[in-house]
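yo

u said u wanted the structure for the complex thing, so here. seqs first:
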Amino acid sequence: MNERLEYWVKIPVGPIHPALEEPEKFIITLDGERIINVDVKLGYNLRGIEWIAMRRNWIQVLYLVERICGICSFSHNHTYSRAVEEMAGIEVPERAEYIRAIFGELERVHSHLLNLGVAGHAIGYDTVLHLTWLARERVMDILEAMGGNRVNYAINMIGGVRRDLEEKHRRMLLDMVKYYREEVMPKIEEIFLYDPTIEARLRDAGVIPKRIAIEYSAQGPTARGSGVKKDVRYNEKLGVYPDLGVKPITPKEFTGVIKGDVFDRMVVRVGELWQSLDIIEHALDQMPEGKIKAFAKDNMVIFKLKKAEGEGIGRYEAPRGELLHYVRAEKGRDGPAKWKAREPTFPNLFAVARALVGEQVADIPVAIASIDPCLSCTDRVAIVDAETGKKKILTEEDLLRESYKKTKEINPKLKIKPERIGVGCMRGGVL
Amino acid sequence: MTPEEFLERIKEKFDVEAHISENKMPHPRRRVWITVGKDEFKELMRLIKEIDQRAQFSIIIGEDRGDYLSAEYHLELFYEQEPSLSIIVSTSCSKEDPTLPTITDIFPSSLPYEREIQEFLGIFFEGIPDPRRLFLPDDFPDGIYPLRLDEKGIKPEMIKNAGHPYNLKKGGAQ
Amino acid sequence: MNLLYATLSLILAYFYVSIASLLWEGIDRKLVARMQRRVGPPLLQPFYDFLKLASKESIIPRNAGKLFELAPVFVLAVSIALLAYTPFGFTPLFSTKGDVIVFIYLLTLIGFIRVLGAINSGSPYAQIGAQREMVILVSREVPMMLGLFAILWRLSKLGVSKPFSMATFYEHNIWEIGTPLSFIGTTILLLVFLAWLASEIEVGYFNIPEAEEEIAEGPMAEYSGRHLALFKLSNSLKEFISASLVVAIFFPWGIGSVLGLTGVAALIVDVIFHTLKVFAVLFISMSVFRAITGRLRITQAAQAFWLRTLPAAILGALLLAIDILEVIA
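structre next:
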């Protein structure tokens, strides 16, 4: 048996690899083309967000949390607000709940279209990548009109939302829903349910059996593709989602057969696209008038939160699965005593690493792309800046000065003075 | 199973502090918060797994509370019901003896979370099958736990500050 | 023949085919981009790429063997040698009896040297890519050779000067036999050849060894700079040459004689017409195929060869053989 081990090759997939969107390292032991073992090592996107959050106040953590990830930025925002509201007992007006639901579903549409394109790219089918990303542009336009930005639209505030939906937004939304229903979705269904290349590659690739999905607590479309019927919006009776009729979607409704492979996860995403379009329409119909914030002025939020104490948990269904934030407050502090987030890619990665054993090398990028890895969310714990031996540390002013010097070489007529724009925070370190 | 029934079943066997919280959403959501000591912790986890074989394990939240270290575990039971059961179990251990029993034999999916708490907070889980580092690089110094607030945390000279307005002194970098 | 004349015409052919094939690659990328609703790179992009790559430093990994640096040079040399036997709209320069076998040998040798170069690079990714290249190399030549020999045998019954050589295609045409059996047989073989062309260029379904950069960077993983430029150039040459074979077998008609030109003018017009036909065949086999399909797994691609293409080739060859028996009998 010892001679066989000589032929086993260990190749690292990552951290930098054309197949991966974000850096992670999988060390794969191969026997020819068959995978024997997969080992996951994370930590390449570690930015020290938890450590930073221990030293900021409530509203600053809200904006910090949003920047954990580009695609699920609204989800983080939303979940953090839910956690704080649960802890402090703040009640959110109903119109704000509906606006939150609309934004959440818009983000889900945009993220699922992105992931469908990435799956197409992983199997070499570039046409699918370009066309689905082209279809995404419409959603991004709407998000920019409503939220002000294509990603990181800070629409949530603790106790409500910051911007209201006007009449022209409503018309744009209904136009967009009609465009997607009639022109984009039939084509996407044709590609992802019936195309021969997709079926040949994605069927029976990266199979996660139901038992492993339950044991490893897989989340989101990864779990639903294997037949585990869970969805946080349904299980938590979150906000106004029960009124809008949300149910977990499994591939049984589309193809009738559940195998737990990559094809099923894509089918689940296509189904969720249909569901999101329905939810947006219903929400627009049912939205009542009223205020959008629980506290009219934002300063009052900190004032009220300073007196609160207790613990709160917020859970929400991000496009990738269950997102959970935990917040603990002590009286008299103007920031959270402890904040922690858990995003869905973490258990999904380990579930898919376990499921890849016994498959072929060709299925690695497809399987990894199918769980929609968002490693920026996964690596967000405490700070690791160790010394590198560099003695000189350039400040923002130094860097600005260097860059303006170069501009002056090109065009000496410009009058520039390097200075920082904006004022720093009034108080020093919070702890 | 409603939260009250669940709590009754737990209280039959163990003597724990627990309360049910309810938040103020349009459909209010209730969660069960249980605090248990280190010795009965593993038995309590076994009982929870008996009540529902398919319990989903979410997260371990570890915290440094001054003179003791606490760990809170969030679980979700009965995930197919409309309001599923959301439980938070909280234990603690002192700083002189930072160990806790591992639950990877009951919930195999808790291994990465235990590894993360081991390297960031310094709690050692007895019987953990794979104690390697998960997030931190391999050349990070031993004995320094980034999330602690006492002398074992990050030292100030380990932080590089490239000009953040908070810590900027007059004239440039630290 | 005159040695000077032969050398000069080979060098001229080399330059012409390099420029034409790089131009085709630019056109192909632009067409595929328009099919995907993008703008695409400028038409002369492959020239810029080649010049840029040729001017960059080549990095040689520490574990590389001796053949690592020699492999690109060998591959380019074999491609140029292939040019001597390529039909350009008229009988190739060095054609002799049985030169089709030399043609196939050289074509397969290119793939083999790529595998050697990949194995010598010392990277595990390249090893996996080399394994796949070997599997595809072995699988794709069999249906093609069967079809090619069947056609040549059929044509040689019509009386040719040099049996089993490229010159046969310009003396008699496979379509002019006219019997329905041979027509069906030839159509089946046309489809087999188009599939073979797609797998020779490695696009679409068969984009497995080289651009399976998704997982394992493929045999080109460790090449950079000048070596990579040579590899890419020889790839482009191989595309052109393979498509020339298909054009010569199935669409060999020239227009020089139709327009009544003779001598050098006829040669030039024939060459240009041949290039246009090559572009048309490559459009179907390369651009459209690339835009509408993804990539298969290696096991599925091998099955596609042995279970679909080979029976089709056998069927086509059988039909042609039955046709010959009728003629004799």
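The longest strand of chain A covers residues 310-318. Strands of chain A lie at 8-13, 25-31, 34-41, 156-157, 160-161, 310-318, 321-329, 338-342.
cya
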